[in-house]
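note to self — DONT lose this again. spent like an hour looking for the file last time. sequence + predicted structure for the chain T wanted, 293 res
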Amino acid sequence: MDAADLTLFAAVARSGGINKAARALNTVQSNVTQRVRTMEDELGVKLFHRHSRGVTLTDAGAQLLPYAERIGALIDEARRAATDEKVPRGRLCIGSLETTAARRLPPILAGYAQEFPEVDIVLETGTTAELIDRVVERRLEGAFVAGPVEQPELVIERILTEELVLLTAPWIGNVASLLKRATRGEIDLKILVLRAGCSYRRRLEDILAARGIATPRRLEFGTVDGIVGCVAAGLGVTLLPRAVVERALREGHIVAHALPRKESLVDTLFVRRRDAFVSTALARFLERTSRQA
């Protein structure tokens, strides 16, 4: 079993079928089938369950897949390191929180793209937990996430500090009174949040728990715009960086309620693997980010 076999195995696992993997790898089905069988014979275990709709991983295959993906990522990184040049070019794959991507990154990305037109930028959004996992797995060269982050395998750089505010519809009035009523069980408080793994969601839940509201009802959304629109409609409350909702605040759609400093300040961080190669494209991107953030 070699790196090429592991790459083929990962392609079959991702695509869920021998035919799809063969097309992705630009080879024939019989070649993929034979190499998978050779791997299984060598390891002495079945890696896939075969069925009419394709293939699914066995327990052994599921355990092998992270190693195959890690080796594939390392090979790709080695290739980039060997071909890296002083002038940034090629693919730069980074991740970002949706809020950072919407508010902070556009001018940085625009300036970077103009200065280094030969770089193909790929930007993936996700929650802090999702993005850190992708960086650790070498699927991203780095990512903008919300602090705090404590992982020894990561290099962590603070980019800026945001003020988080509690957001409500304009007619809510005194938010302290609202929270007291929720604590006493007089109202059914709903929080509007992104999916699990979102650091702002976790911070909001901690803030409410400290005020005696341990289990608010959660309504999950896929986008920040969806959350803001539903807060404006009075569906519930949320916690977001003030800078992200400036327009909605100016237009009077929502109201921001300040929180104590220890609850409201959050660092936006850039994280990358400590042992990963830093391409020229990434180095120049980080330099521009530090100047413009």
